[in-house]
Amino acid sequence: MRTRPTLSWTPTADLPPGTTDPGPVADALRAGGVLVLSGAGMSTESGIPDYRGERGSLRRHTPMTYQEFTSSARARRRYWARGHLGWRTFGQAAPNAGHRAVAAFGRHGMLSGVITQNVDGLHQAAGSEGVVELHGSLGRVVCLSCGTLSPRRELARRLEEANAGFAPTPAALNPDGDADLTDDQVADFRPAPCAICGGILKPDVVFFGENVPPERVGHCRDLVDAATSLLVLGSSLTVMSGLRFVRQAARAGKPVLIVNRDPTRGDRDAATRVALPLGATLTALADGLGVPLDGLSVPLDEQAGHH
Fold this sequence. Notes:
Blueprint: H1 23-31, E1 34-38, H2 66-71, H3 73-90, H4 97-107, E2 111-116, H5 122-125, E3 132-133, E4 136-143, E5 149-151, H6 152-162, H7 183-186, E6 201-205, H8 214-226, E7 229-233, H9 240-251, E8 256-259, E9 272-274, H10 278-288, H11 300-303
Parallel strand pairs: 1-2, 1-7, 2-3, 7-8, 8-9
Antiparallel strand pairs: 4-5, 4-6
Helix pairs in contact: 4-10, 8-9
């Protein structure tokens, strides 16, 4: 039976209102020790759609669940066909001003760490170090039989060879790197097995319906404990994987600051929510703090061999 993941959350009228004053965020950054928690809204300005925004993919697309992927060869063929096509765009995405600002804050000693719910590698591409990828990375694949990790670009090459001429036109690209294709468009696609043992390959990401590894959660909890404040960037905090850290920080009396245009599930635990666009807000904060936005720009398909 397919497990339905928690995909949506409906804001209620009694949520505290957002503000357009980013001053408290600037104060927190000046004080230092800020732990960043970023979500899909962080990468929309890089051309990667989010799940839940005004044009979010959940309005037309239900993400693959772990249970479906592992139990159905047909589902895996569909996933890899769609994912292979999406990777051609997804793997070339470049960091935006928001990613560069976060990296700059880190270089200037204002951050204690970065946790991201995204699987796109754009924080690292912008120059952030020690990023905890809560949900993994599309830049790697893992064998479900032998556990071997390998670069996604290597698998992309093998899939190109096995599916010469595969170039259907997708309806859209989704945040998980999945391109919208019909069953007819993927019917003849040939997935590639593990090059070591012939087992089933899966992207090294946490699917809906799958748990974040406990040791990774523990590491993130330690980061929250060590931080002075928690800064949430571009996340609706709909799923518990990120919301639990907001609640942990609030219980410990640490200020929770959110920059997200729409209400979030963590607003009640936040000291403030700045309802402004991320890129422009973080750029303005960096400018006001005298932090230059110089940084790197390495696409995910070029990072994949460095994990």
